[in-house]
Amino acid sequence: MSNTTNYIQKIQTKIHENDPHQPEFLQAVDEFLSTIAPFLEDHPEIEQNDLLSVLTEPERLLQFRVPWQDDQGNWQVNRGYRIQFNSALGPYKGGLRFHPSVNLSILKFLAFEQIFKNALTGLPIGGGKGGSDFDPKGKSDQEIMRFCQSFMLELSKYIGPNLDVPAGDIGVGGREIGYLFGMYKRLRSYDAGVLTGKPLEFWGSLTRTEATGYGVVYFVKHLLADQQKNIEGRKALVSGSGNVAIYAIEKLQELGATVISCSDSNGYIIDENGIDLSLLKEIKEVRRERLTAYVNEKASAQYFEGSLWDKEISAELAFPCATQNEIDEEAAKRLVRNGVSVVAEGANMPASLEAANYFVSNGIYYCPGKAANAGGVAVSALEMSQNAQRLQWTFAEVDARLDGIMKEIYQACYDTAVNYGQKNNFVLGANISGFEKVAKAMLRQGLV
Ligand code: GLU
């Protein structure tokens, strides 16, 4: 066994021993470690300085109580978190997730991935993530407001435009960011750049809402263009029905694909005529209803309970845009059997380690989330630039920059994979090209 392999195994063992009860975090680190050996061989200074031990330990973990009162006057308590994982390239940057599944393991995996995703954007942002096990489902607007205010009462002590800049994620959109911003402003000062994904009325960026969904489609557009192909006329599967899924569907339709599916946590829709996007937006963004409402209003659509990825259905493109580990190895095999040649992740880590390995070893163009869904955080960084300039750029300008950034990320993944003799292994490409930037900055900043 080479020295490098030994070193990687030593780190892996240590991490598994340190946090045996954090499966999602271990999964994200294992995936990362499984690809970086060739880079370590070329860069002995990483092992010499034991940089992997430093890298895999978050700089700071915050956990706090979030007390709030429901509409009936009952006292409620949730857990709030912020993981400030790595600040080598800039202030900690990453979303807040409000979902009952949220725990330290999930947020550490998300924050760890965010380090490399943010590095890939080429913009000056470090990696962080946060959130709460609060379940926004079924809560009134007033309850959401009270929860957000209480959450920010504590979080405001630890964030700032040059320190840590949260944004949205699952369960946190413009409404929540608005309430969070209001409370931050009351407690501290009008720092527009302390949160991104803000509503446009108070210095959000145009295109931020669309950015993650558009970005994942731009990534695939550049990938196909490299092979003199395009998206037009192709059949696509999309999972999820949140912000990422909706705007991936919008861009796919604009570029001429037929998107036949979307899903929520209970089930999924198949509409062979193509998803009716204005109806979907009305249900999810305006009425805030479940997807079952779609079939009641659309004769061509069918609703099924369970996971979209359990269905035998043919398509060429797959965009998992729901949540982590939605595609297991069985589902990966099913997709490949049914003709999928490109899998692009709008969600974070939607494929299990086994599923991802299956895609890569079967010649599928598998575009991992940390590269393919970086458009959201990239436009967040552009929002920070606009806020610092006290300017608001046009939709067209931000959109063009987003497209350019996604092209560069695709190119970096591709070139790095080719460079290491593993053409089309975008997992390796994304991990090594992201890590390279972070590692170089960390080494130059010394042991901090
Ligand atoms: N939550 C998004 C992500 O997973 C965006 C984070 C941000 O804009 O800071 O990348």
From TrEMBL:
<feature type="domain" description="Glutamate/phenylalanine/leucine/valine/L-tryptophan dehydrogenase C-terminal">
    <location>
        <begin position="205"/>
        <end position="446"/>
    </location>
</feature>
<dbReference type="InterPro" id="IPR050724">
    <property type="entry name" value="Glu_Leu_Phe_Val_DH"/>
</dbReference>
<dbReference type="GO" id="GO:0004354">
    <property type="term" value="F:glutamate dehydrogenase (NADP+) activity"/>
</dbReference>
<dbReference type="InterPro" id="IPR006095">
    <property type="entry name" value="Glu/Leu/Phe/Val/Trp_DH"/>
</dbReference>
<dbReference type="Pfam" id="PF00208">
    <property type="entry name" value="ELFV_dehydrog"/>
</dbReference>
<dbReference type="InterPro" id="IPR033922">
    <property type="entry name" value="NAD_bind_Glu_DH"/>
</dbReference>
<dbReference type="InterPro" id="IPR006097">
    <property type="entry name" value="Glu/Leu/Phe/Val/Trp_DH_dimer"/>
</dbReference>
<dbReference type="InterPro" id="IPR036291">
    <property type="entry name" value="NAD(P)-bd_dom_sf"/>
</dbReference>
<comment type="subunit">
    <text>Homohexamer.</text>
</comment>
<dbReference type="InterPro" id="IPR006096">
    <property type="entry name" value="Glu/Leu/Phe/Val/Trp_DH_C"/>
</dbReference>
<dbReference type="InterPro" id="IPR014362">
    <property type="entry name" value="Glu_DH"/>
</dbReference>
<dbReference type="InterPro" id="IPR033524">
    <property type="entry name" value="Glu/Leu/Phe/Val_DH_AS"/>
</dbReference>
<comment type="similarity">
    <text>Belongs to the Glu/Leu/Phe/Val dehydrogenases family.</text>
</comment>
<protein>
    <recommendedName>
        <fullName>Glutamate dehydrogenase</fullName>
    </recommendedName>
</protein>
<keyword id="KW-0560">Oxidoreductase</keyword>
<dbReference type="InterPro" id="IPR046346">
    <property type="entry name" value="Aminoacid_DH-like_N_sf"/>
</dbReference>
<dbReference type="Pfam" id="PF02812">
    <property type="entry name" value="ELFV_dehydrog_N"/>
</dbReference>
